[in-house]
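Quick review question:
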């Protein structure tokens, strides 16, 4: 009897110990499991933390909109979103092969709504326009500004206007007066003449030469004009003849210079002119030098104005040493004293 009582007692004690262990295991198992509402709260908490980071980072971009975004976060924390349906819709969208941007747009709407209603977003006939708006939003680049503007009505930070550069007042430019142009020399300057008729190849008018010139006896001391250009009584023959040039009385051996730049046209000697030479200049101008004692250039030689070309003398038909100097323009005889200073 006592033996049966002891067995019964031991059996009861073992049952009690087993029950305690079972209860303890159930307690531990129950504490490890979370209900549906707890899972939803944890997921909402994670989303809110992510949005809090967005707000914290965006403070420097649009601080004036932070208060509005905080209100939306409070609303998100109070939502009773069916996250099982959310992830079911996400899996269905992925299996159907919908575009990534459409899938992300639908996920956002499922979690946060359209920014106005507090009910889960569903693609129904009644909200087709809203769905199309969500598709248009999903097609945009996913940036912080597009998401916050579309979901919470927060516009991007206004662009700062670059102040216009203020330039200092500019002085009024003073117009530079244009130089007064020098009057052009007429091609032909008429000179009155009432003497005997001139030869056909001679004129008393002054022609513009268009070249730089100088006197062929410049700097020679004691020079003077012994006979001018025009009609005269010949000093040897005594007849009236037209003097084609001007006689410049100088000592024999005086230097004779080139009247202008040019080329020696020819050189020669005759009973009338003695030793002579002619230089061809630009613009159809020629100069002729006669009664020289020596010629210092060759035919075809280039000379510059003021180059020594000969020495004066008394060769040819003369009464004394002098330089006979003639000028022509396009074959027309001109008065040399129009172009050289009278000594």
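Suggested answer, residue by residue:
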């Amino acid at each position: 009897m006592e033996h049966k009582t002891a067995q019964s007692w031991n059996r009861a004690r073992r049952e009690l110990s087993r029950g305690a262990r079972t209860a303890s295991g159930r307690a531990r198992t129950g504490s490890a499991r979370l209900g549906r509402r707890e899972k939803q709260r944890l997921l909402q908490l994670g989303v809110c933390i992510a949005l809090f980071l967005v707000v914290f980072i965006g403070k420097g971009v649009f601080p004036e909109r932070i208060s509005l975004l905080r209100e939306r976060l409070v609303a998100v924390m109070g939502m009773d979103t069916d996250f099982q349906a959310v992830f079911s819709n996400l899996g269905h969208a992925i299996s159907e092969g919908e575009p990534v941007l459409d899938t992300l747009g639908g996920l956002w709407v499922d979690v946060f709504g359209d920014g106005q209603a507090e009910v889960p977003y569903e693609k129904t006939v009644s909200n087709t326009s809203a769905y199309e708006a969500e598709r248009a939003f999903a097609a945009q680049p996913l940036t912080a500004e597009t998401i916050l503007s579309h979901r919470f009505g927060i516009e991007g930070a206004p662009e700062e206007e670059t102040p216009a550069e203020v330039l200092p007042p500019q002085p009024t430019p003073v117009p530079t007066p244009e130089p007064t142009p020098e009057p052009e020399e007429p091609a032909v300057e008429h000179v009155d003449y009432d003497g005997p008729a001139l030869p056909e190849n001679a004129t008393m008018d002054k022609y513009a030469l268009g070249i730089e010139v100088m006197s062929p006896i410049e700097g020679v001391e004691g020079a003077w004009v012994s006979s001018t250009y025009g009609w005269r009584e010949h000093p040897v023959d005594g007849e009236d003849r037209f003097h084609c040039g001007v006689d410049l009385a100088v000592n024999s051996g005086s230097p004779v210079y080139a009247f202008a730049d040019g080329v020696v046209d020819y050189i020669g000697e005759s009973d009338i002119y003695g030793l002579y030479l002619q230089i061809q200049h630009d613009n159809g101008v020629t100069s002729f030098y006669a009664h020289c004692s020596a010629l210092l250039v060759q035919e075809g030689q280039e000379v510059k104005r003021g180059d020594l070309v000969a020495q004066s003398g008394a060769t040819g038909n003369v009464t004394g040493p002098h330089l006979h100097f003639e000028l022509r323009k396009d074959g027309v005889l001109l008065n040399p004293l129009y172009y050289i200073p009278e000594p």
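Why it works: Residues 2-32 form the longest helix (31 residues). Residues 266 and 299 are 5 Å apart (CA to CA).
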